[in-house]
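Honest question from a wet-lab person: if I give you the sequences of every part of a complex, can you actually get the arrangement of the whole thing, not just the pieces? Trying it with mine:
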Amino acid sequence: MPKTTGHDNDIAIIGWSISPMVRNIEYTEARMLLDVVTGAVNDAGITRDDVDFTCAGSCDYVAGQAFSFVQNIDAVGAWPPKRDSHVEMDGAWALYEAWMRLQIGDIDVAVAMGSGRSSTSDPELLYSMEMDPYYLAPLGADAISFAALQARSLIEAGKVTERQMAEIAARTRKAGKDSPYSQVTGDFDPDELLKTDYVRNPLRKHDLPPITDGACAVVIATAARARELCENPIWITGFAHYTEAHYVGMRDLRTSNSTTLAAKAAGIADGPIEVAEIQSAFTHEEPLLVEALGLGADTLINPSGGPLSANPVMATGLVRISEAASQIRDNGKHRTLGHSTSGPCLQQNLVCILEGDKA
Amino acid sequence: MSHQPCAIVGVGQTHHKSRRWDVSLGGLVREAAQRALDDAEMTWKDIDAVVVGKAPDLFEGVMKPELYLSDALGATGKPMFRVHTAGSVGGTTGIVAAHHVETGRHKRVLAVGYQKQSEGNAQFALGSGKGASIGAGGAFAPYMRSYIDRSGAPLDVGPMVALKDRLNAFKNPYAHLKIADISLEKVKASPMMWDPVRFLESCPSSDGACAVVFTDEEGGKAAAAAGRQPAWILGSAVRSEPASFPGRDPVAPVGAADCAADIFAQAGITRPLEQIDCAELYVPFSWYEPMWLEAHHIAAPGEGWKMVESGATALDGSFPVNMSGGVLSSNPIGASGLLRFAEAANQVRGMAGEHQVDGAKVAIAQAYGASAQYFAMWAVSSSLDPFGS
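Yes, you can. This is the full assembly:
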């Protein structure tokens, strides 16, 4: 079989696991991670002992506790001691660090994790705290308020309508019905959705993501080891992330420059993208991101249901990458994309492009 | 695959104080970063990617502050990465930044570690806002008592470490604590905080930041050609282990030994006391100096305290430790690890000022965190091949 990818310097995904997505999980974050790390190494056909490096993504504020990731080390099983790191970012960035670590060349297998229990906090209080502490946080504006500003600017620019937003909500939540990793799903009539009240004008409840507890783990390996362990490694052929100005007033909210930069750096133009799993937690972000990524009408967007069906903050991005990998391994696709984001109005964006061996 | 050489060509830090109320969080990190860029003879435009490290966001009350700091750190339009590995985070931040260069992905990377502890109450945040925190001193005191028990070290050793680091701090213009009339008697007369650790054997709570500029082989050689000695990374490593389980030895953690063995192997160090010219170890409480010398297999078991007692770890000793005054003199937690790593780099660059170890060619730095379970280390040198392998 001709190899279109999988050069000696490439890194491949060889297994993953996604937790059930629920409004309020009964057990700890460490326990959620224990299950997905076990699931991911089983999926890859290895054991924890085979893992040379681990990197977790989680957030103390989401957990409501300083050093919250320290307890999560129990899920890794770091004995004997492991090469290990932690990012206060989505697990997608933990995967980025692990991907970079394997390129150093001295080790072969890594696990990246993301986890969050949003149920323990109040998002309206929480997300105002990630804003500039001097000028923005005191305003008490949360992520939904900032998203509403961006939605309004998109509507006024003629880039999306409230009806299209309702259709996106209906489409993704219908798609989520087929996913074992969705939380809010069903058949919704956009006309009925549009009759509901605004949460923050122009956003209605259906435009918002659910509050979700969940975790995800992904196993990656160097090219030689991936071929040993796996019949169909899923190659990471492009991986990049960029940030931009924090103040939304300094950005053109009708576009996402950092997404475009990341897509370009990841080599998105090298071929068609069949499926894109994007972290559009608010309905209006979908057309914005699709345009910023330069995707055409032939790219399937969030067939998993996306973050509107389940939004395990700090794992949502890593779930996107896992779902994009699943499209290659389980659905016969060849080239897919996972996207993650952080900060108000999509401040920081990451793009991960995956390819299968089969052309 | 094998990684490419990485050089440190710029180091900067703030003046560390109890309260830097003259600057915002953005102003604090920018002060350190600007000094590092000036040292590297670079501008903000030259930087390809930024890596930020700090300990818990609850210390300042800002969640994921790298989002807000992207403007202050010139990261707009660039990759911005945020690391958090407890007290070891400054070390991990330096290592992750180095990986950005060693993989060949970026040419010039800025790493910044900071903490502005005056913005909040660290003791409160350590207890996750639930109160009743025993704090780091309370958590580590049993380990130090166990070390004393095991090694039979005389009780003067802790105060001797404190005196040495506090004297070294006088030579460091950036150090936080400079206790004018410091003496062994004064250390021993200070209140007992967490037996065996007295007040003057403990680290302060500081506002401060540290920044380091990394570049590739070409950049390192260009700096050297321009008369600016780079520090080359000979080896770096991290290790983590669970906080507690039967059989874990927090006095000599396996993670610490593995981490040290890893960098020694990468650097070609087989006789650490002979081949390493000086070390910056993460010593927030005095007894950690002899304990860490042994745990990281720099000194043989039971020999660490003898090095302290004989004066070997003094600035003019045979194996100087914490030339900068160490964590005992300045402790902006998220920066403390990177300050150790940066001091090691400055020593081999010959740029450590009054606390320079004459002719230092190879230096190591170490940081640790949480329940003495996260470890980060690196070895740096003025030469890519200091041992002529």
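Two things worth pointing out. Chain B touches chain A through 62 residues (CB under 8 Å). The longest strand of chain B covers residues 207-216.
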